[in-house]
Amino acid sequence: MRIAYSCAGEGLGHAARLIALAPFLEERYEMIYFIPSHLRRFIRDTLPAGRFEDLPYFAFEKKQDRICWWSTAQKTIPQLLDFPRVVNSFAEKLKREQVQALISDYDPYLSWAGKMSGIPVFQMNHPGIISKTLVLNPLGWMPALTSLFLEGPWTERVHISFFYGDIGPLYRASLFKYPIDDQGYLLVYLKPSYREPVLQILQKNPNIRYRLFPSRGENFEEALSGCTAVLSSAGHQIIAEALALSKPILVIPQKGQWEQWLNARMLHRTGKGAWTSLSRLGKDLPRFMNELEKYRVPCPLPPGFTLEDGTKSLLERIDSFIQRNRVSVRAFQRTIQRSHPWKSTYPILDR
Questions:
Q1: Cis peptide before 253 (omega within 30 of 0)
Q2: What residue numbers bound the domain in which 227 lies?
Q3: Which distant-in-sequence residues (6+ apart) come within 8 Å of 146 by Cβ?
Q4: Contact yes or no for 274/242 (Cβ under 8 A)
Q5: Whole-number Å distance between alpha carbons of 78 and 58
Q6: In what order do the strands lie in the sheet with 186-189?
């Protein structure tokens, strides 16, 4: 059975989930991966024989730790105007490729293409969690609506999160390959827009040894297992991975990015990390490093929080979803063929 899998390109958390799931999906189905081109290098090591198709994505324009909304809007409006044409081209491609089900991680392009083609869509992501947690906060209404657009239409939806999710975080197997140790360095995981001001602060604290990521040729999983603590942006995946390995983490949420704002505050509730801003980092980083033992004290997670690997549960949900929807896909294809017998792009599949 042929399945399409698409994921967003903003951050590496979506690609990390693909890496965690793909080996198991490859055992079950014939997979085609629709991903933004810049993620291929990150994913190729795990799926050297995988089939990949390029996918556009919506991205924020950023300056240091702040989202530039005016620049983002200028970039996004032409993309939105072209959205129907691109979706239609993907719908035709899904038909030609005889795709029978679609798994989407926060990608509206293939979700809408699947909807147009009568293909069931399994939507799974973390950012959509804001629609469950910020509904009472007026400042969160617009981000929640934006999140609904980026999810696109879905037949079934699952939110993946260490807080209030339907399923816990997904961890790739390589994360647990190395012994957990404390080699005395800070793992710094930051996008290029953050790096310069953060490195300036680190240079003023020469007693703090650090390793910087992403760095080509460096082993992130090995470095995370051996670090004493983590400094990063407030992406969900890096927070969950640090907590899973019992590494205290200090995060810098991007201003204007509500998902990261939420992640940072939920991290604080666990008692296993803290959050700051670029303007406060010079004072907060030395304090955080001096208080690491406080974050290492074992304590129960708040109700609704979990660090349990959700991979097995998610695979069961996906398998059940695909089996339930196989009949509806074949019925849709038969209807198309009866109504439009010249539509050879709709072969009846029964595998």
A1: no
A2: 178-296
A3: none
A4: no
A5: 11
A6: 210-213, 186-189, 229-233, 249-252, 273-275
Residues 250 and 330 in one domain: no
Q: Which positions ≥6 away from 269 have C-beta within 8 Å?
A: 163, 302, 305
Residue 329: its H or E element: helix 311-339
Cα–Cα dist 335/95, whole Å: 14
The 10 Å CB-count burial string (b at 16+, else e) for 133-171 is: bbeeeeebeebbebbeebbbebbeebbbbbbbbbbbbbb
Both 323 and 278 in one domain: the answer is no
Q: In what order do the strands lie in the sheet with 30-35?
A: 52-54, 30-35, 2-7, 101-105, 121-125, 156-159
Q: Which residue(s) pair with 251 in the sheet?
A: 232, 275
N-to-C CA span, the chain: 6
Question: Considering the chain, what is the average pLDDT of its residues?
Answer: 88
Q: What CATH number does residue 229 fall under?
A: 3.40.50.2000
Q: Examine residue 304 and state whether it is found in any structural domain, yes or no.
A: no
Domain count of the fold of the chain: 2
Q: Are residues 16 and 107 in the same domain?
A: yes
pLDDT in tens, 48-78: 888 999 999 988 777 766 677 778 788 889 9
165 vs 38: CA distance, rounded Å: 28
| Banded pLDDT at 215 (limits 50, 70, 90) | confident
Q: Are residues 291 and 317 in the same domain?
A: no
- Neighbouring CB atoms inside 10 A of 115's CB total 18
For the segment 17-44, the average pLDDT, to the nearest whole number, is 92
Output the furthest CA–CA distance in the chain (Å, rounded): 73
| Residue 5's pLDDT band (cuts 50, 70, 90) | very high
Q: What is the reported pTM?
A: 0.86
On whether residue 301 sits in a domain, the answer given is no
CA torsion through residues 71, 232, 34, 163, sign: negative
Q: Given the structure tokens 């997904």, which residue do they identify?
A: 170
Domain assignment present for residue 227? The answer is yes
